[in-house]
């Protein structure tokens, strides 16, 4: 039987959590034994988010096949077992690129190319491709109803209902029920107007997810149902929760999955959510906490590091710990007090953390601050985890402060440096185009037996996802390894260095890949699990030492 579809749309305002809602519904369907796939349509004209500022769009999530995609695909992978590719995220830009390519080839046989049917057909074909090997495909439409750029996507899903029938399609619409402080009231009018806008383009929502920051009275739910022409039990309150991993349980409690399956005429067994219940129990009942400082370039907008934050949460949950993250702007760590004194300098900002992490990024802004943070972690034996740029800066810091190469740098930050510890990928020499030209997607890596990485993974052969334009310069390998740095992970052909470590340190590891993209709440990534474990162990050691010193005094 061909797949059935659940379409997730949004109204009133953006950023209500459509991606999280789609991922949670997918999670609940999987728990009932249904094979799902998920996709996201983004209305913007960029071909993909790869060249967009993290401040504009947040994180760029990377799939195994090297696609640079929307961060919602990270939610899809963390909540389900769907194998996502570049086909699971399409933008208006990419769709128009495909259509224009066909037009130039003459595929349309001289016809006038229009939004209907050509653009909408391209959108529907993309949906069918993703749904080819699953029972239910969840399709999220980015933006909000009423946006000009979203109209072709909404028209396409309206046509899908016409072509497939009501038993094969289900519309889930997410809206806002705001609390007006001055009136001390929740208001349903924004939801009513949003549904009215959907009706004006021919789509009647089947299920309403009403985002609210507090409980919504039953009479208000009845009012929404009456005005929006849905069953009362189909008015679901998507209330704010401290942990996003509670969202599937909240939706299950209100019967979202049962409703969707009823509308789609699918019979299944009950969902087994015991593992998710255990995760939420641990999230709300930690034995202790662990504090991690993230020293980055885009910390003003936390969505820039969405997968990273969640991977740290997964690592903490695996040890039954509460994660306490402090976001530190790298540029703010570039100063030292006079004569190295620790007043009003980066020392005071870094003291007291159990672990320090430097994530990925591009450009030279904040690099000196990152180098100071890495030096602090290395010299003070604070567990350190460097990812992508965090590995590259760790190598530069080691070259400068351990090997004595004072002007060591990356060709990205200083093209004239006499010691290019990091330089542009050899295959990218002469390539100036920015979009999709990096080393992207899953690549194999061989680990040195007995290394921190090998112990974490429990194997010496791994595959991880990459997104970088620069690499470690192996001409400096002998100098750095001679001074104590270990290169513990390389590609099978030994071309690229993938992991560096410092032996004798509680935990000092830098990796060129992005392990955060493969971490799940039920399957924490080994490197994050061990980094958080080392950070907590280090904290306990420091506390024990301080207690012993106090007893001596």
Automatic annotation (TrEMBL):
Keyword Flavoprotein carried by entry: no
PROSITE patterns linked to this entry: GATASE_TYPE_1 (PS51273)
This protein's UniProt keywords: ATP-binding, Glutamine amidotransferase, Ligase, Magnesium, Metal-binding, Nucleotide-binding, Pyrimidine biosynthesis
Pathway where this protein functions: Pyrimidine metabolism; CTP biosynthesis via de novo pathway; CTP from UDP: step 2/2
Record family assignment: Belongs to the CTP synthase family.
Quaternary state and interactors: Homotetramer.
Other comment: CTPSs have evolved a hybrid strategy for distinguishing between UTP and CTP. The overlapping regions of the product feedback inhibitory and substrate sites recognize a common feature in both compounds, the triphosphate moiety. To differentiate isosteric substrate and product pyrimidine rings, an additional pocket far from the expected kinase/ligase catalytic site, specifically recognizes the cytosine and ribose portions of the product inhibitor.
Record-given protein name: CTP synthase
Organism whose genome encodes this protein: Granulicella sibirica
Gene (name only): pyrG
């Amino acid at each position: 039987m061909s797949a059935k579809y659940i379409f997730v749309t949004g109204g009133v305002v953006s950023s209500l959590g459509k991606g999280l809602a789609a991922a949670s519904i997918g999670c609940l369907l999987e728990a009932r034994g249904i094979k799902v796939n998920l996709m996201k349509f983004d209305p913007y004209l960029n071909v993909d988010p790869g060249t967009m500022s993290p401040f504009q769009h947040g994180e760029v999530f990377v799939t195994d096949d090297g696609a640079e995609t929307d961060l919602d695909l990270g939610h899809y992978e963390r909540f389900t077992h769907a194998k996502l590719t570049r086909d699971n995220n399409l933008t208006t830009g990419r769709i128009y690129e495909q259509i224009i390519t066909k037009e130039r080839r003459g595929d349309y046989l001289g016809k006038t190319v229009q939004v209907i049917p050509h653009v909408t057909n391209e959108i529907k074909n993309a949906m069918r491709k993703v749904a080819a090997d699953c029972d239910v495909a969840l399709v999220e439409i980015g933006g909000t109803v009423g946006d000009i750029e979203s109209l072709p996507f909404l028209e396409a899903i309206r046509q899908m209902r016409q072509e497939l029938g009501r038993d094969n399609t289900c519309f889930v619409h997410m809206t806002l029920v705001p609390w007006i402080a001055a009136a001390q009231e929740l208001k349903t009018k924004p939801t009513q107007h949003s549904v009215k806008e959907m009706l004006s383009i021919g789509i009647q929502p089947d299920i309403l997810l009403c985002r609210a920051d507090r409980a919504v009275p039953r009479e208000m739910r009845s009012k929404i149902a009456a005005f929006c022409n849905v069953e009362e039990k189909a008015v679901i309150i998507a209330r704010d929760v401290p942990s996003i991993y509670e969202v599937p349980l909240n939706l299950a409690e209100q019967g979202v999955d049962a409703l969707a399956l009823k509308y789609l005429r699918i019979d299944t067994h009950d969902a087994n959510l015991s593992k998710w219940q255990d995760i939420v129990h641990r999230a709300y009942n930690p034995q202790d906490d662990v504090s991690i400082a993230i020293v980055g370039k885009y910390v003003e907008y936390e969505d820039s590091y969405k997968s990273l934050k969640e991977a740290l949460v997964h690592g903490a949950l695996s040890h039954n710990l509460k994660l306490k993250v402090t976001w530190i702007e790298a540029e703010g760590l570039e100063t030292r007090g006079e004569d190295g004194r620790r007043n009003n300098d980066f020392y005071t900002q870094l003291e007291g953390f159990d672990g320090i992490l430097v994530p990925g990024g591009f450009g030279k802004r904040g690099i000196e601050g990152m180098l100071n943070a890495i030096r602090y972690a290395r010299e003070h034996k604070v567990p350190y985890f460097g990812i992508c740029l965090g590995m590259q800066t760790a190598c530069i810091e080691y070259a400068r402060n351990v090997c004595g190469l004072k002007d060591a740098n990356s060709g990205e930050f200083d093209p004239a440096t006499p010691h290019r510890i990091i330089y542009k990928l050899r295959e990218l020499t002469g390539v100036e185009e920015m979009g999709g030209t990096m080393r992207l997607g899953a690549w194999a890596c061989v680990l040195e037996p007995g290394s921190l990485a090998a112990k974490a993974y429990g194997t010496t052969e791994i595959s991880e996802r990459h997104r970088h334009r620069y690499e470690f310069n192996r001409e400096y390998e002998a100098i750095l390894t001679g001074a104590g740095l270990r290169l513990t992970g390389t590609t099978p052909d030994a071309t690229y260095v993938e992991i560096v470590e410092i032996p004798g340190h509680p935990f000092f590891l830098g990796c060129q890949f992005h392990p955060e993209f493969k971490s799940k709440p039920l399957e924490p990534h080994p490197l994050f699990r061990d980094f958080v474990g080392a950070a907590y162990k280090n904290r306990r050691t420091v506390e024990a030492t301080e207690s012993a010193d106090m007893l001596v005094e």
